[in-house]
Design brief:
This protein is of the alpha+beta class. 38% of the residues lie in helices and 33% in strands. It has four helices and four strands; from the N terminus they run βααββααβ. β2 and β3 form a beta hairpin. The mean pLDDT is 96.
């Protein structure tokens, strides 16, 4: 089973992300290197959502959210974690 973390992004996300981007990506890369985070990225046109696909338990995903600078500093205005039943693929 996978977990899908969906972020709702602030309207001024693109303008504000530069100051926090390195820390956010560092946190995500570390989770990826540990094998917890499979895929991550923002949805463009408009940049209003981001999706992160996890192979880790919910508690790990929740700790990521709590530590994510985008969440802490308000670039993420809401988030959900939902199970994702993969039918095709790994």
């Amino acid at each position: 089973m996978h977990l899908l973390l969906e972020y709702t992004l602030a309207e001024d996300y693109l303008e504000r992300r530069a100051a926090l981007r390195d820390d956010h990506l560092g946190l995500a890369r570390a989770a990826h290197e540990r094998g917890e985070l499979l895929l991550a990225g923002a949805l463009p046109d408009p940049f209003d959502r981001a999706l992160l696909v996890w192979t880790a338990p919910r508690e790990v995903v929740e700790r990521f959210v709590e530590a994510d600078p985008y969440v802490v500093h308000g670039l993420v205005t809401g988030w959900t974690i939902r199970p994702w039943n993969v039918v095709i693929g790994g």
